[in-house]
Amino acid sequence: MADTAADVPAASTEVAAPAPAQAEVPAASVPLTEAENATGTADMDHAAGAQTPAGQNAGPNTEANSDQQHGAGHAVAGADMVAALGQTDLSPWGMYQAADWVVKSVMILLLVASVVTWAVWLGKQLQLMVARRRCRQLLACVVNADTFAEAELDCHTGRGGGMALLAATRHELSQSARGPASDEGIKERVQARLDRVQAGLGSGMSKGTGLLATIGSVAPFVGLFGTVWGIMNAFIGIARSQTTNLAVVAPGIAEALLATAIGLVAAIPAVVIYNHFARAIGGYRALLADMSVALLVLVSRDLDRQSVNQAANTEVLLRKTG
Fold first, then answer.
1. pLDDT for the residue numbered 219
2. Residues 151, 145 contacting (CB under 8 angstroms)
3. Residue 39 confidence (pLDDT)
4. CB count, 10 Å around CB of 170?
5. Pick from 61, 81, 101: which residue ends a domain?
6. What is the model's pLDDT at position 201?
7. Which of 81, 107, 137 is the last residue of a domain?
8. What gap in Å lies between CA 35 and CA 23, rounded to an integer?
9. MotA/TolQ/ExbB proton channel domain location, by residue (predicted)?
10. Does residue 1 fall inside a structural domain?
């Protein structure tokens, strides 16, 4: 029994012996879990603390990169625009070739008008120079003549307005000499003929100047029509390309403005030349008027002398018969 009793405690001891080992597992596991939690929390706080400044510094860096990219985009776009403009021929001939057919027609019409303007200027200037020189020469000869017959013999300057007046006076005197006519009637008829010839000469010299007035008043509006048409085409090109790039807009607007420029080139000289000829033709008409007066003076002088001579002859005859 003693042995049995002795064995029981031993067995109980042996059985109870593993109990501490089972108790050690929870005891050891609890501190490890707290330590791990503390260590993990510290690591997470450290990581969060390290990430927060990095996140704050990332904002300015991102904005700077965006500005750099935006500036680079503008630089590339500007370079493309300059390259496109460099490839576009913006000379007058290049703009004419690239223009619409309506704008081309307007430009050609205005250039023709400009050529006509300068042709009229050259021809009319030469005509006026010759006519005024001949009229001055004939006027000086008529003024120095004593009678109309002397003027006919001495004054020969070829064709011209003065010679037409001289011929009209001679024709009327010859017509009046065919029958009885009073001195006053002859003077009036000669004056009427000279006025008509003078008006015809002035009108003939004014031929062509009306075309200058038309070009000067119409050419700017024709050029404006070409400009409006060209700008319409430029806007249509913008709508089709869906861009407001200067390389797309500039050529069309330049072509349109070229039409206006050509219109002004045609109109401004036409107006200036028209005003010049208006003054020059006015001076020529004044010379014709002086020529008419000089011829009337000769006619009146001849008629007065004839009247005096007739009166003297009549008096002599009366004395002889008396």
1. 94
2. yes
3. 46
4. 16
5. 81
6. 93
7. 81
8. 20
9. 182-281
10. no
Sign of the CA dihedral with 130 first, then 133, 135, and 141 last: negative
Q: Which two tokens stand for residue 243?
A: 């861009």
CA of 99: how far to CAs of 108, 135, 231, 259, 261, in Å? 12, 51, 11, 10, 14
CB-CB contact of 281 with 209 (8 Å)? yes
pLDDT of residue 154: 82
Cα–Cα dist 149/144, whole Å: 12
* Domain match, 104 and 71 both: no
250: which residues sit within 8 A by CB, 6+ positions away? 85, 88, 90
Say which residues have a Cβ less than 8 Å from residue 269's Cβ, sequence separation at least 6. Answer: 114, 117, 118, 121
Radius of gyration of the chain (CA): 57
Q: Indicate whether 205 and 141 sit together in one domain.
A: yes
62 vs 70: CA distance, rounded Å: 12
In the prediction, which pLDDT does 313 show? 65
Look at the alpha carbons of 212, 218, 223, 224 in this order and tell me if their dihedral is positive or negative: positive
**CB contact set of 291 (below 8 Å; sequence gap of 6+):** 135, 138, 139, 142, 161, 162, 165
What average pLDDT values come out for the chain (322 residues) when binned by 10 residues? Answer: 39 40 40 44 44 44 50 45 52 71 88 95 94 91 90 78 89 85 87 93 91 94 90 82 73 82 94 95 94 93 81 66 67
Question: Does residue 144 share a domain with residue 67?
Answer: no
Residue ranges in the chain assigned as alpha helix (H): 2-16, 18-87, 92-98, 101-144, 148-154, 161-176, 183-206, 209-241, 246-321
**Domain shared by 304 and 167, yes or no:** yes
Residue 317 Cα distances to 39, 182, 310, 321, angstroms = 168, 22, 10, 6
Q: How many domains does the chain have?
A: 2
